[in-house]
Amino acid sequence: MNQIHKFSLHKYLRSVTASICCFILFPLSATFAQRVEFGAGLGGFNYKGDIAPHLRLKFFKPGGSLFFRYNPNSALSLRAEIAGGLIGAKDEGSKDPYQQVRNMSFNTRIFEGSAVAEYNFLDYEDRRFAVNWTPYVFGGIGLNTFKPEVKTGDYKTSGLVLPYGVGIKYQIRRPWNIGIEYGARKTFTDYLDNLGGDPASTDKLMQGDPSTKDSYYYLRFSVTYTFYRIFCPK
Fold first, then answer.
1. CA atoms within 13 A on the CB side of 166
2. Distance from C-alpha of 23 to C-alpha of 120, rounded to nearest angstrom
């Protein structure tokens, strides 16, 4: 008899817990449904600095990212993202006589976390029987850390970054979306290439340009999944 009573009580408490959960989550689901996306991106990083004063396609290195996107309305999206990959370049092949003599190269692992806002030029909202796509611009703030393959000085390997750029996103079929994005990262360091502006040697070839900072760029293709409901436990 006691076992039957305990079983009934357990079942009752479970039902009450589920009801409370649904009561709390239902208004949240109405708020967040069709607004929350989780996504992943694959692409490449590129670098601009002392060893590559101009962007060159051959210096693209692999990179990837994971991100969360919240769409409060059709014009605005908020995104948190973590990304990582490689950057690198070399003087070899440059037409600059100075770089030909210097003949340096580098490879650096880089990792960043960022928070950005996207402005959608078209109404980007869930519409079952309509084409849903938009170009957008984005900007925000982030932090990065980097690890040069060769480090010749005692410099800081983390700092603030300002990501900004453009992209296009398209809903191919509910709940899946695809996108392409190209963004720049303004940094406040001159050591991504291990060739900073502060002289570490009297050799002029081993000194960077103190008047400019290094920067890097991220081109990625992404896939996201939109959540349409919050499930209550049974």
1. 3
2. 33
Q: What are phi and psi of 213, to 5 degrees?
A: -110, 155
CATH of domain 34-227: 2.40.160.20
Q: Hey, where are the domains in the chain?
A: 1-32, 34-227
pLDDT category at 131 given cuts 50, 70, 90 is confident
pTM: 0.81
Tell me the pLDDT tens digit for each residue of 61-80: 999 999 999 999 999 999 99
